[in-house]
Amino acid sequence: MNKYLCAIPSALLLCFTIACQDKAAMAELEKFRAQAKVQEQNKEIVKRYWNGKWNERRLEILDELQTSDVVNYGTSMKINNLKEYKQVYGMFLSAFHDTHLTIEEISAEGDRVMTRVVFRGVQQGALEGIPATGKTVTISIFTVFRLVSFCRKTRDLLYRCTLRFRSTHQFLI
Amino acid sequence: MKYPLLIASVVILLSFTVGCQNGAQKAELEKVKMQKAIEEQNKQVARDFFAAIDRQDFTKLKDLLAEDFALNDPGSPVPLHADNLFAGIKDHYTAFPDWNHVIEDVTAEGEKVTVRLIQYGTHKATYMGIPATGSRVHMAALHVGRIVDGKIKDWFAVEDYLGLMTQLGMELKPKEAKKK
């Protein structure tokens, strides 16, 4: 009779040991899952950005998806904030018509997303001193985006946080 | 007499059930951890690649490249191979003997690694027809590689050649209109 009574606490101990050991593993797994989810969300934002910029041609896409202190590091130009970005984008929008953008490659790690896209457009407006040529250009663009959680205080004093990108490093060929 | 035995067996069964339920999640965790480890290894391969070029260590470079390594160069219609890459590196270092790569950021996902870097060097010999200027130049670049089993399978490099040529004294201007 006593033998069985001794078995119960040790079995219970075993049960708790197994359960507790898994808690740490579960927490770690949850962390990875959460990170993977953010990475997927980041990729979606970048896809929306490219689509909105050159397929839908919507100026508002910059307001929606960039932080106000966004910086673009291009090889021959640097854009220092959202206001400048809008100016540059506006310039390219009026210069290029029939624009189409295809995302060829997209990958993410942590807070960064890398894309290789192909931009196609017809130069029907003047661009930086080059008069309209009517020529169709096809460019490959490599961009590394860094995304952050951008929080804004809304009217009812609540913080609304969305994911936006704060910096891009861009290379064109 | 029966009860302790019954309780003991129920408790043991329960503990095994709890243990087994977490088995699937544990397997998932192991898979994720292994994937992360591979991604970290891939990042190191990319870093080693540039370090080997800096040292002109062609033995190490050969070791890092897969048998069927393909270099996708925007200037070439077909992919280039290891010997083309080595020849290109040798030519470049003849013109810029102190050329080195400073890695700014490395990102990895799955087999793909993206490296954002800046290269520096001094123009000591003729490069692309431009005689030595002695200028200290820099060139930003973005390289994307696919690494499988620790070997580089393919590589794509985008370099700011326009920036480099400008620093060497060249300028971009419209083509002469072919009139008359």
Q: Spell the H/E element sequence of chain B.
A: HHEHEEEEH
Overall strand count of chain A: 6
Q: How big is the Rg of chain B?
A: 27 Å
Oligomer: heterodimer
- CATH A-level architecture of chain B: Roll
CATH architecture of chain A: Roll
The overall pLDDT average of chain A reads 83
Helix content of chain A: 40-55%
Strand order of the largest sheet of chain B: 1-5-4-3-2
Order of helices and strands of chain A: HHEEHEEEE
Report low-confidence residues of chain A grouped into runs of 5 or more. Answer: none
Low-confidence stretches of chain B: none
The main β sheet of chain B shows up as: 5 strands, mixed
- End-to-end separation of chain B in angstroms reads 115 Å
| CATH class label of chain B | Alpha Beta
**Greatest interface and its participating residue counts:** A-B, 36 and 39 residues
Find the structural class of chain A using helix and strand composition: alpha+beta
Q: Whole-Å distance between the termini of chain A?
A: 83 Å
Strand tally of chain B: 5
Counting H and I runs of at least 4 residues, what is the number of helices of chain B?
A: 4
Count of DSSP-assigned helices of chain A:
3
